[in-house]
Amino acid sequence: MNRTRLPILIVLGSAAVAGLVGFASGTTARTASLSTGSSLQSDFVRVFKHVSPSVVQIQTTDGLGSGIVFDRKGDIVTNNHVVGTAKTFTVTTSTGKQLNGTLVGTFPQDDLAVIKVDGAGLHPAAFADSGKLQVGDIAMAIGNPLGLSSSVTEGIVSALNRQEPEGNGYVLRNAIQTSAAINPGNSGGALVDISARVIGIPTLAATDPQLGGAAAGIGFAIPSNVVTDIAGQLIRYGHVVTSHRAYLGVSIADTGSANGVYISALTAGTPAATAGLKVGQLITAINGTATPTSTELGTALAALKPGQVITIAYRTQAGTVGSVKLTLGEFPGATG
């Protein structure tokens, strides 16, 4: 009898011990989880306190947006669509102090601009190397959405290297996709990592093509490496000297039939002209990717680099199809 009961007792004892161990382990895990959550919350608070003094509100007669203090000389980087056609601005700091700002330069192709305030003693933000970002990294957006100053939302880096049309003929190149909420007024502000470094400038919120309005949890930011490069050139030269953007040298138009992009003009000596493309032809594909409209053409070019050899497929007005190979040039920059 004892021989038959002993294993049962041992099994029951083992189960009881396992239950106790499980209970203790669960308690330890919950304690660790609470500790981790508290630490993460402290990190969010720390990041906001560190970065928010470097984020300002920029107001024009047409609206308002956000900006990031770029250096100790009073240069502030923001989106080109925030400054619009304005030359002067009202800049409001996180403490509510109002300053007068003037335009330094713009580069619409990357939707970036720099303005300047004098003698303000503003604290510049630190910029991270966006080339080291990974999907899943924590991201916080700090700005002035809907005029609500010094607001913060949080999320993660959802994807990298997106080519996103802005709907105005320009395409954001290698954009960061984030789940941190981006609303009107956030544009030009700071997307930061958990180390309180700027990883991008929130610029664009995705729209729902069926319901209209913003698509929740999908926003796009200009990578910090693009921001520091372009802003640095605008500050130094007043315009962009080296754009790093692929260039064909054509003026284009949509046909309305979505069967290709119409070449309305060619600039002499540019890659398209040298390769033999002609006014009146339709560009139908780049490297095998169909370009039925100017949006698709711009998106395809945004993913390419100057110096790359590509194949362009075209169709003539008579219906003849052909293709040419060419080496992409570099967009010549723009004065601001």
Write the layout of secondary structure elements.
Layout: H1 2-51, E1 55-60, E2 63-69, E3 75-78, H2 80-83, E4 88-92, E5 98-107, E6 112-116, E7 138-143, E8 151-165, E9 171-178, E10 190-192, E11 198-207, E12 214-223, H3 224-237, E13 246-247, E14 250-254, E15 261-266, H4 271-275, E16 282-286, E17 289-290, H5 294-302, E18 309-315, E19 321-327, E20 329-330
CATH fold label of the largest domain: Thrombin, subunit H
Q: Strand fraction band?
A: 35-45%
Principal-axis shape equals: globular
Number of domains: 4
Distance linking N and C termini = 96 Å
What does this protein look like?
- The protein has 336 residues and is an alpha+beta fold.
- It folds into four domains: 2-46; 53-116, Trypsin-like serine proteases (Thrombin, subunit H); 130-237, Beta Barrel (Thrombin, subunit H), CATH 2.40.10; 246-330, PDZ domain (Pdz3 Domain, Roll).
- It is built from five helices and 20 strands.
- It has helices at residues 2-51, 80-83, 224-237, 271-275, 294-302, and strands spanning 55-60, 63-69, 75-78, 88-92, 98-107, 112-116, 138-143, 151-165, 171-178, 190-192, 198-207, 214-223, 246-247, 250-254, 261-266, 282-286, 289-290, 309-315, 321-327, 329-330.
